[in-house]
Each structure stands twice: as C-alpha cells, then as structure tokens.
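During the reporting period the student researcher (J.K.) took over the structure-prediction task from the postdoctoral fellow and processed the backlog of single-chain submissions. One of the processed entries is reproduced below for the supervisory committee.
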Amino acid sequence: MNRKFVFFTLLLIILLLVTACEGIGNLKVTIYDSEQNLANDVYVGLYTKDLKHRINFAYTLHGVVAFDELPSGFYSMKIYSNGVEKIITVQIKANDTNSVKVNLAE
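J.K. obtained the following structure tokens:
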C-alpha cells in the first residue's frame, strides 16, 4: 500500500507540473484598411483552431482589439469588414503578448 501511495503522489505531482506549464498569453490584433489607416468597427472573432466554436469576439477601436489571458495554443480568427472576410490562424505563446497585423486590402 505504501508503494501505491508514493506512486500516485508522484503521478499527481507530475500532472500538476504539466498542467501548470501550459501558460497564459495575450493577443493584440491591429487592423489596417486599404489606405494603411487603422480601421474602426471591424469584427474580429476568436475561434478554436477548427472554427467550430467561437471563444470571444470584439470590434476594433482605433484599429486595435485585445484578447487577454488566453491559454497557449493555436486559434483561428475571422475578420469581417465591408464585405471582406479573412480567416487567420494564430499561435498564442505562454507569458507573451502575441501581436498580429492584418491589412484588409491584401
């Protein structure tokens, strides 16, 4: 019984370390229009990588949207503005603010 207790205790410690190392990151998205000006009122949706579930969304203010405290991993973004649709995959890295710049004209 003592060996089982030690084994499960070590297993629990390892699992806690692995899950704690996942980390949290931030995402800053900057949107530019065709004239390279910051674009306002652009929809930016943050989705799971496979686009099946929306996690969060926001509209740009002075061309910028920020999503804070995201678990590290891969996400997809849908960006809509005046008939223009873009889908972009981004990677969130732990303990970092990840910046993405999008030009609606391209």
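The committee noted the following: The first helix runs from residue 2 to 20.
J.K. will present the remaining backlog at the next meeting.
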